[in-house]
Design goal:
It comes from Paenibacillus lignilyticus. 75% of the residues lie in helices and 0% in strands. The protein is mainly α.
């Protein structure tokens, strides 16, 4: 199993998709910088982190994570190497498990780099360090964002495996962003998987912020497609064509 995980990591390390990890951290950081630059009020570390979290949650993570997840699970189909992958001694479920494990550092890198970039950007506006309370709150929200966005990975994986391409997963990400903008101010915000992180992390609609409903929504969004792809990948004909 460790050899399988190492193999998946080597494929990611040599992939040009890793540039998207850097881009996914840079764009929200740059947008947050310009928002702060045009802010005539006094600088506050909390506002800087909140702006970055809002951009990540509403725009970047739904689209980027769907694309990266789709690529991770459909790469062998795109490159017609899936037969080589499945002729090894590992079961198909082990192959899926390795991909989900590798997705953790890949997706977490986007969140971590964005946090570090935002932290560094703050010193362009002030020489004072943020308080421990501000840093602790920010770290907690970035961690929560990662957990919630990772929970949506099985949906992108299911789409990529069904169509054997990461292009539909990319389309799913775009749809998630557009639909999220529509639902974020409605009473259904905690019933829609892509808008739940927006409300739990940034409190975009505090009147509808029901944690128990949001957690239930995310658990369903994670486990239902996860069980489906475990069944589908194990039983379906996955030849590379």
């Amino acid at each position: 199993m460790l050899n399988l995980i190492a193999c998946e990591w080597l494929k990611w390390r040599n992939s040009r998709m890793l540039w998207l990890v850097l881009l996914g951290a840079l764009l929200p950081g740059a947008l947050g910088f310009f928002i702060q630059l045009n802010n005539s009020g006094a600088f506050e570390w909390g506002n800087l982190f909140e702006n970055n979290l809002f951009i990540l949650t509403m725009l970047m993570c739904p689209a980027l994570f769907a694309l990266l997840g789709g690529y991770l699970f459909a790469r062998e189909f795109q490159e017609r190497t899936v037969n080589n992958l499945l002729t090894g001694p590992h079961s198909r479920n082990q192959v899926l498990t390795a991909k989900f494990i590798i997705a953790i550092p890949v997706l977490f890198s986007v969140i971590l780099l964005s946090f570090l970039l935002t932290f560094g950007t703050g010193f362009l506006f002030t020489s004072e360090m943020p308080t421990l309370a501000v840093i602790g709150e920010a770290v907690g929200k970035y961690g929560l964002l990662f957990v919630l966005e990772y929970a949506l990975l099985p949906i992108a994986a299911a789409v990529a495996l069904l169509w054997r391409s990461y292009i539909p997963a990319m389309g799913l990400g775009v749809f998630a962003v557009v639909s999220e903008l529509t639902i974020m101010q409605s009473r259904f915000i905690m019933y829609y998987p892509w808008s739940v992180p927006l409300n739990l992390v940034t409190h975009a609609a505090p009147d509808y912020n029901n944690v128990s409903i949001g957690v239930t929504t995310m658990l369903i969004a994670f486990f239902v497609p996860l069980l489906f792809i475990a069944w589908y990948f194990r039983r379906s004909d996955v030849h590379s064509g």
